[in-house]
Design brief:
It is elongated, with a radius of gyration of 24 Å. Helices cover about 35% and strands about 25% of the residues. The chain folds into 2 domains: about 210 residues, 3-Layer(aba) Sandwich (Rossmann fold), CATH 3.40.50.300; about 55 residues, no CATH class. The protein has about 300 residues and is of the alpha/beta class. It contains 11 helices and 14 strands. It has a 6-stranded mixed sheet with strand order 6-7-8-3-9-10, with helices on both faces. The chain has a 4-stranded antiparallel sheet with strand order 2-1-4-5. The protein binds adenosine-5'-triphosphate (ATP). Adenosine-5'-triphosphate binds next to helix 1. One of its GO terms (molecular function) is ATP hydrolysis activity. Keywords: ATP-binding, Nucleotide-binding, Transport. It comes from Phragmitibacter flavus.
């Protein structure tokens, strides 16, 4: 449903904002675009919305090129891009009418359905000036959902929302996918949000794609390669003993990777037999944050392969 191919963009002569970025999103998927500040996430959404012209590459939405047939391609798209702004002195309903007047689309029953979905029905005839940040975001989502897009592009949709607002927004998005099979691409800094909402993620670093695939879950990571954390007053003895046992040990992170066929308690018993003093020995569960930090701390300029979810 969304295909980005070889996107390149340079705003200034210093460095590329996007360097040969390609990825795709299947129908009905929710995909998160992750990356530090300045990684290139908003530039990608800007290119998808035809607001930023790429130096090279193309975006195809639902089979139509944004660069060649912008109007037709964007007819299938609803978006929240950067901070949504509304006419403060008008009601939410009047704002929606004004925005929909641009496309000529308005079906009362459909608007009411969307307002129910985003839980804004009871305040829609109040002035936007009286809305909270969360209500403005819900109005922005209602506007993005009119007139019934197939694709939603969301740029930091939960920015500035409180935990309850984030929770509500998340359930609305998941409901939308379930009921309407929408294809959703969202930018986010929030790993927890991506973990809870997205099927897949694309990680950008310094304008380059460094990962595209499933959002690694904590259980999968730990089960794929069990690791233990060892705290010892004698790391040199521990390292030598573990090396002889075929268990790589990193004294800086205190992590030991278990060799095949050996359990954590068995390895601990061998360390004790070898006289290694032990302060603590505990299973290490890699979180999404650990994985993300490891991934983004690899040098984007080098050609090294980033760690896979199971590393
Ligand atoms: N209009 C512009 N003019 C000049 N440079 C720009 C422009 N827009 C973006 N950039 C630069 O392009 C790079 C990517 O910016 P972009 O906004 O896409 O990153 P981002 O991942 O969305 O960051 P953030 O999470 O902070 O929003 C940055 O170095 C940024 O300074």
């Amino acid at each position: 449903m969304i295909t980005a191919t070889a996107l390149r963009k340079r705003f200034t002569s210093e460095r590329l904002a996007l360097d040969d970025v390609s990825f795709s999103v299947e129908k009905g998927q929710i995909v998160g675009l992750l990356g530090h500040n300045g990684a290139g996430k908003s530039t990608i959404v800007g290119i998808m919305l035809g607001m930023v012209r790429p130096d090279h590459g193309e975006v195809i939405l639902g089979g139509i090129s944004v660069q060649r047939h912008r109007t037709q391609a964007l007819r299938q798209v609803g978006a929240i891009f950067e901070a949504p702004s509304f006419y403060e002195y008008m009601t939410g309903w009047q704002n929606l009418r004004a925005l929909c007047a641009l496309s000529g689309w308005w079906i009362d029953a459909e608007v009411h359905r969307v307002l129910e979905l985003v839980r804004l029905s009871d305040r829609i005839h109040h002035k936007v000036a009286t809305y909270s940040h969360g209500m403005r975001q819900r109005l922005a989502l209602a506007q993005a959902l009119l007139p019934m897009p197939r694709i939603l592009l969301l740029d930091e949709p939960t920015d500035g929302l409180d935990p309850e607002g984030i929770h509500e927004f998340r359930s609305t998005i998941l409901k939308l996918r379930e009921e309407q099979n929408l294809t959703i691409l969202m930018n986010s800094h929030l790993l927890s949000e991506v973990e809870l909402m997205c099927d897949r993620c694309v990680v950008l670093h310094g304008g380059r794609k460094i990962y595209e695939g499933e959002v690694p879950s904590d259980g999968g990571l730990s089960a794929a390669q069990p690791r233990y954390q060892l705290l010892t007053p004698n790391p040199n003895l521990a390292a030598a003993t573990l090396k002889a046992l075929g268990a790589p040990y990193d004294p800086s992170s205190h992590l030991v990777s278990l060799p095949g066929g050996v359990s954590g308690p068995q390895l601990l018993a061998r360390l004790v037999q070898a006289g290694v003093p032990i302060d603590s020995w505990s299973p290490f569960r890699q979180t999404l944050e650990d994985w993300y930090l490891q991934l983004t701390h690899s040098d984007p300029a080098s050609n090294q392969q980033p760690p896979s979810p199971s590393s």
